[in-house]
Amino acid sequence: MSQEYHIVGADTNETSCNEDGKLTRLNIDSISKRSGQHDRLPPEVALLQNLEEIVLEEFQFQTITDVVLPELTQLKELHTLRVGSKTLTGTIPQDMVETLTTLQHLVSFEILASRLTGLIPTDLFLLTNLRSFSLISSFFNEEIEDWNQNRMVGLTGSLPTEMFRMSHLEHFSLTANATGRLLPEIANWKNLTFLRVFANLEGEVPTNLGELTKLTHLAFAGCNFSSSTIPTELGQLSHLEYLNLYETQMQGSLPSELARLQHLTLFVVHSNSITGTIPSGLWSLSSVKNLDLSNTQLHGTIPDQIGTMSNLGNLKISHGAFRGSIPFAMLGSTVRLRHLLLTDSFFSGVGLPTEVGLLTGLLTLDLSNNGYLSGIIPSEIGNCTMLSSIHLQGNNFTGGIPTALGLLGSRLRELDVSNNTNLVGPIPSELGMLLWLNHLVLHSTSLTGSVPEEVCSLKAAEGAWLKTIVIDCSKVTCHCNCTCG
């Protein structure tokens, strides 16, 4: 006699059956959206004897035992268990690990939960058949600007040396307050393609990491590798596409061998103690889309060579010792450039040549706090109609605010030209065309006159976006509740 089981919340588009009509893959969305209660995986799921995959995301689970039930030991064919929940709290109990160890076919285990606390059971790392292991915060975000938000995960403990016996691993991802070291035994992970560790690891980065030649994604963050340099052997990772070394306290210089990474799309060394100049070969990696050299002791100039980085979308060099002129003529060749942040350094010369108008896809332009950038703000900036943010404060720009900025009305939300004492003239009425403007910062300049009525109307209108206008009240008059800077 056949039996039918109905799982509330099952997504039939993501639920699979084998050719005998028996369920093999179960993807369930939030039960609580329908029941109004917190979620718990029904124990009846253990009756699905042929189940191979369980994917549970966007649930209102309260504890890990709402998910990994003792009944799962009956699912002898289960090879994938993925759980994602922003509400999951508590610890990872040892009996849950014991349940997992009975699943002989389990090769993929992923828990995405930002509020777990307590110790990481070391036996989790003894699931030697695993090909994919992830224990990460659901808020984890590798966007360059968002790293400080990734410190929410509360799991602690020391990573056992036995973890390096997981010789079948292809994917390893861990974000936690865990301690430990990377040992040379990491070379046992010969099939590894993805390695991401956001934890309080210390010591040195093993040089034989270069033996993991299948790696495409390598990311360390928040680690204390202050006794380590970037191994030259990383240049052997010929398939590497992603290299993120954010805030790892690494020392030394950038190895020239990194220029061999011809498939590299992201390179981040933000917040390290790296010194020296950028190897010339790195400026010729045409595959790179994201480059962040900020908060380091690197120095030198940006060479014209950067024009060969035809796929460059994000360039961030801030809080460093870079100097010299900004090669806008060459940057104009990088037609995919979206975010240009060259701040808090020593760049000098003409800050915005007319070639800036070639960057028509630019979303963010931030040249703030270099001190030595000079020249006028050219009208060609009006060609950059995708711009949402312009920050030019803390420089030596001259002339007036170009009326062409009004052409950016459909996108621009932030405009800051403060602390440019040689910026003169009136505030153009064309700024009133910037319908989406949130912040207009004009203080510590030599601008005179009054805030145009067209600009004030942006603040007065019902549902207006404009929240802040900051001016020199001794030089500029305002009739719409401006802030004196």
From TrEMBL:
GO terms of molecular function: kinase activity
Stored InterPro entries: DNA_repair-toleration, Leu-rich_rpt, LRR_dom_sf, LRR_R13L4/SHOC2-like
Keywords associated with the record: Kinase, Leucine-rich repeat, Membrane, Receptor, Repeat, Signal, Transferase
The Disease resistance R13L4/SHOC-2-like LRR domain, residue ranges: 218-318
Name of this chain's protein: LRR receptor-like serine threonine-protein kinase
